[in-house]
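Hi! If you just cloned this repository, the fastest way to understand the data is to look at a raw example. We've pasted two of them here, unedited. The first protein comes first, obviously.
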Amino acid sequence: MIEMLTSQQIDTIIDAVVAEMQKQGVTAAGARMSGRAEGALSLDLADITTPAFRTRSYVEQPGKPEVLRALMQTTPARIGIGHAGPRYRNIPQLVFWADHAVTQDALFKEIDPSLLEQFNLFQVQSQASSRQEYLLRPDLGRKLSDAAVKTLQERCVKNPDVQVYAADGLSATAIEHNLRDVLPVIGQGLEQAGLKMGTPFYVKYGRVGLLNEVNVVVNARVVVCLIGERPGLGRAEAMSAYLGYRPQPDSTDADRDVVCNIFNGGTNPLEAGAYVVEYIKRMLKHQASGIRLKLIEQGEAN
C-alpha cells in the first residue's frame, strides 16, 4: 500500500529544494521568493536555459577545477552537472527537461506561413497525412502525394540546371532559422555561374529521399533539398542541404552529397550557401555526385 505524504512532509521537501536552489545561486541570478500563503510557497525563478546556467559547474569540490572548466569549454556535452545521491542536481535536471521540450516542439512545429510568403514558396505535401504518421512511416515521407505531383507539374519550371526546395524534415524550426540566409546565397551563386534555377517550393512532411520523386517531375541536372535535421536536446535549428546529380527513383544515399549542421554555431548559413553552389559546380563538371563524384575527384588528384 502506498503511503500518502502529509502536508508537513511536502513542505519539508519544498524547503529542501529551495535551500538547494539558493545554495546553487539561483536566487542570486534573479529568482524571487515570496512567503508562504495558506501553506504554499510561491517561487519565481530566473530563466535556467540561459548560458549562465549551462556553462557553470555543479560539481562540489572538484579535484582539478581548472581542468574541469577547460573541458566544459570544449564541448556542449552535459558534463560537470554534479549529482545529489544517484540523481542529477535540480538545476541540471530542469535544464534537461527544458531542452527535451525544445526537441518535442521542433518535431511537431508547423512552418511559419510568412516565411513561405517572403520567398514566394508554394507548399506541397508528401504521402504522410499527419506528423504522427510521418514519424511512424518514414517511407511515406519519401513519396509525393498525388496532389503534390500535380502541383509540381503545373507550377514548376521543367529541365532546369538546378532545382532547390525546402522540407520540414524533423525540424521546421531549422528552416525558419536558416532559409532566409541560405536560399538567397544559393540563388545569387547560381545566377553568377550562369545556371538556370528551377521554381523553389516547400514540402510538408518531407524526407531526404523525396528528391528522387521531385526530379521525376522537374528533370533537373542537380536537385538540392534544404531540410531540418533531427533535433538534439536544446538544439533544433540545425539544417542540412542534400544534393544529387540527376537523382532517379532508385538513387540512394550513396548517390548524394550533404552540407550538414547548418546554423549559427555550426556551419555558418551564409558559408553553407556558398558550399552548396560549389558542390553544384563540381557535380555539373563531373556529371556525378556522392561516392562516384569523390572517386572521380580522387582519380584526378592522383
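Ok, and the second one:
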Amino acid sequence: MHQSVSFNQQICSPENALFSAISPASLYGYGVFTTIAIYNSKPFLWQKHWRRLSENALRLGIDLAEFSEDLAHQFLMQLIVENAVINGRARLTFFDQSAKGIWQTNSENKTSLLITTADFRPISDIKLTASPFSINSQSPLINIKSCNYLENLLAFEEAKKRNFNEAVRLNEKGEIASATMANIFWCKNNKIFTPSLETGCLAGTMREFLLENFEIAEVSEPIESLQNADEIFLTSAGIGIAKVATFENRKLESTKIADKFSNILHQVVNPKRK
C-alpha cells in the first residue's frame, strides 16, 4: 500500500484513518468496496465501479447521501496525485457507521469513505486448483462486493498451503463460479466461456468490459469444463488479464486469447496520440 490514504475527505497516513470500533462495519463487516485499476494516473472503468458501489450500498442499506459520484471521484484523484500513482490500483471502501444491529452506538457519521492505493498485484505463472470451499448461489450477499470477505480469503489461503496461488470455487450445484479474487474465463475450440451471474460469480467490471466487446458465452458448467479447457485466464482490476499456467498441475499451452485480450486492453488504456 502507498504512503497516504484518503479518509472522509482528508489525506492522511493509514494510522490516522480511524473510525468507531462499535459500528456495523467493524462488528459485522457492513461495508462495500471496489478495486479500480489506475492507468496513466486515471481510474479505469470508473462509471462501472461507481454504479456497482451504489447498487451494492443500496442493497445493504448503506447511506451514501454524503458522497456523490463527483465527490468520490475528486477524492480519488487527489489521492492519486498525492501518492504519485501512474499505474496501479485503488480501493474505495464505504464503511457503515450508523446505529444499527445488535450492538448500537450513537454515531455522528452514518458512513465513512476510505480510499487507498497500491501497485498492481504481482502475479505470474498462475497455478490454479479447485477449492474445497463452495459458494452459496442463494446467499443474500451474492453479487455484492462486501467487506465480509473472509470466505474468499480462507479459500485463497487454503490454496496457497497446497502450493497453488489461486483457486476456482464451485457453487452448491457443482458449477464453476469464480476464482477467490477474480473472475474466470476459459477457452475450448476457439470459443470463450465465463460463468453466468446465476452461478454466484461477482459481476466484475473487467468481466463486464470483456462481455461488452467480445463474443463470450455465459454458462453454468461443471469443473470438467476447466479440466478440458485449452486455455484459462483470470480477470480483475488488481491483476488485469492474467493467464493460468497450470490447472491441477496440468500445463496449459495455449495463451492466444488471453494475449489478444491483454493487447486490446493495452491499446484501450494507452491510445495512440494523433
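That's it. A detail worth noticing about the second one: Residues 126-269 form a domain with the D-amino Acid Aminotransferase; Chain A, domain 2 fold (CATH 3.20.10.10).
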